[in-house]
């Protein structure tokens, strides 16, 4: 009878040690401990949020409403386009693009 008590005590202690090691591993590496093996929503919650949920985290972009910022960006865009045109790298005139040239061959 004493041997069965010692055996069961050993099993309990080894199970406790394994459980403690698993808990420590989960705490260190940020894993979720699920000893019962039941289904949980952790897999779903681990995924990236999409759509309006993500949009809620970002503040409203005020520069879209500021006419001075929009004017400055438009001015920068036109300046860059003018620079590209001077170098011959700008967009072609209407009807003279790559598709039109390809069609005429």
Automatic annotation (TrEMBL):
Compositionally biased tracts (Basic residues): 86-105
Alphabetical UniProt keywords: Mitochondrion, Ribonucleoprotein, Ribosomal protein
Subcellular location: Mitochondrion
A Pfam family: MRP-S33
Keyword Mitochondrion carried by entry: yes
GO CC terms of this entry: mitochondrion; ribonucleoprotein complex; ribosome
Annotated region described as Disordered, given as residue ranges: 82-105
Mitochondrion in keyword set: yes
InterPro entries: Ribosomal_mS33 (IPR013219)
Family: Belongs to the mitochondrion-specific ribosomal protein mS33 family.
Entry protein name: Small ribosomal subunit protein mS33
Gene that encodes the chain: LOC109727828
